[in-house]
Structures are given as structure tokens and as C-alpha cells.
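Board notes, transcribed. Complex of a protein with zinc ion.
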Amino acid sequence: MFDNVGSKVKTLAKVLCWIGIIASVISGLSVWFGGYSNYSSYGGGTFWIGLITVAVGCFASWLGSLATYAIGEAAEFAEMNNAKLNELTEAVKELKQSGLQNTKTSNSSANQTPPAKTYSSNHTGSTWRCPKCGCTNDLTSTYCKDCGTYR
Ligand SMILES: [Zn+2]
């Protein structure tokens, strides 16, 4: 429905411009010929009035068509951007889907790996915790450095 709105508006702008120019020329001609016949005493003045009518009419129609043309150009630009945006959103969708698949596969592989080994609270890493005072001692020492309890 809204396909090629920009080009349509641009064509409309050209048509409007020509209609405006033709209309202003016709009105200018009517001022000239009508003026000469009706106000023969202002003959010199009507020539300039007719000329101004044509000039202003042409300029106004050109300006109006220019504005319309600009709108058409903007619409065309927006359409182009929309097309690009659609492409981008499609690409993002595909990326998201592939990303989801990747996370799914990584999750399943994580499930396959055995659970982390649980160490006894008394022997964690390179230290051991004293059962009496809770002091952490080096594995090299057999007695607690704080209270002297045997490990
Ligand atoms: Zn201790």
C-alpha cells in the first residue's frame, strides 16, 4: 500500500510545479490582455502586474514543489532505512537464534561434566582448619599454631 511513497510524492511535486507555473502564466496573461482591454489607461502598470504575477506564481509553485519534493526525498530515505532496518532486525534475529543454540549446547555439555569435588572443611587447599578454635593452619604444621590441638 505504501510502496514507493517517496517517488510518488516526488512525481506529484513535479506535476504541482508545472500546474503552478502554467496557472501563474495563464493568470499573468489574463492580467496582461484583460488589463489592456479593461484598464487601457494603466497599460504600463498592468504589464508589470502581469509579470509579477507570473514571477511570483512560478516562484511560489517552485517553492511549494521543492518542499513537496523534499518530503518525497525524506520518505524515500525513510523507506530505504526501513528496508535496511528490516534486514538488520532479521540478521539480529538469526544471530540471537544461533546464540541461543550455542548456549543450549554449552549448557548440555556443562551438564555432562561431573560435579565439582567437595573438599572436607578441615582440609581446604593448602591449609587446614583447627576443629577446636577454628584457626587456619598450614598443612606442614601438625599442631594448631594458636591452641596446639593435634590436627
Ligand atoms: Zn586451634
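The chain has two domains: 5-112, 122-151. The CA atoms of residues 28 and 50 lie 4 Å apart.
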